[in-house]
Inverse folding.
């Protein structure tokens, strides 16, 4: 090979090598090599932004659950009665992973008469455990069915509270119908807890029959309507709610009372129809 041929071959080889360097591949990242995967997204990238958004909206781990809850006026109003005296929403929520976990813990404390501070310590302190395991530790006398039922109820109550806070101010259609029926509205107002309006009492029930039956059962058995509503609107049947709040009544007796209240509701609706 002549000297000029050798020089030409070297020159031809140098051109693609220079092009590789110009593309940012750097020495050692030639054609056919795969770049090392990025193991973490820097702050400001879409991945980091998504994680940050989750922390803000309560869907993921949040460092400020209390702040998020307290800024939601509707949710704050619903939860305040469940917060222990002397404790603010912010201090009560501190340490929980998200608002759903926090709200469920508040309901468990109320439903099972468990001191909230004890429940919170077990769920957020060193060696933290799930809601179900925390209940099991603090109420070891509960059988597996009761444990599962109470855990599920509290989770459903939390889901309902969060969902209702997003639709606050939207009246239930059947509540408007009741208000427009003078005789029915007058009959039901006599059953409401003091200071409660028909609109607020009816919020969350599936229909007016379920709402009126809960009012009748509350009157018949002297059970707090607020507690009865809290369970029924979270998915328990009226009979299950009665049994939970009046454990001295057997399950069969509770179902009988529920059927009686439902029959009363039908009579009330029929007798006051316009």
């Amino acid at each position: 090979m002549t000297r000029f041929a050798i020089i030409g071959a070297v020159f031809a080889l140098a051109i693609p090598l220079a092009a590789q360097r110009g593309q940012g591949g750097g020495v050692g990242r030639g054609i056919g090599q795969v770049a090392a995967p990025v193991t973490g997204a820097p702050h400001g990238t879409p991945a980091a932004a998504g994680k940050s958004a989750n922390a803000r909206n309560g869907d993921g781990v949040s460092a400020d659950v209390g702040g998020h809850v307290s800024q939601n006026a509707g949710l704050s109003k619903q939860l305040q009665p469940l917060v222990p005296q002397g404790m603010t929403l912010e201090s009560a929520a501190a340490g929980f992973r998200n608002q759903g976990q926090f709200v469920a813990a508040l309901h468990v404390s109320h439903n099972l008469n468990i001191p909230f501070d004890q429940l919170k310590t077990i769920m957020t302190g060193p060696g933290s455990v799930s809601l179900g395991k925390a209940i099991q530790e603090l109420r070891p006398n509960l059988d597996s069915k009761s444990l599962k039922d109470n855990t599920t109820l509290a989770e459903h109550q939390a889901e309902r509270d969060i969902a209702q806070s997003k639709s606050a101010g939207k009246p239930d259609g059947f509540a408007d119908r009741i208000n427009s029926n003078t005789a029915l509205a007058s009959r039901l107002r006599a059953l409401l807890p003091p200071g409660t309006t028909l609109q607020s009492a009816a919020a969350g029930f599936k229909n007016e029959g379920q709402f009126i039956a809960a009012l009748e059962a509350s009157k018949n058995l002297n059970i707090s309507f607020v507690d009865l509503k809290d369970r029924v609107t979270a998915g328990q049947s009226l009979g299950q709610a009665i049994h939970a709040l009046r454990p001295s009544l057997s399950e069969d007796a509770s179902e009988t009372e529920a059927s009686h209240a439902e029959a009363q509701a039908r009579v009330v609706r029929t007798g006051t129809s316009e």
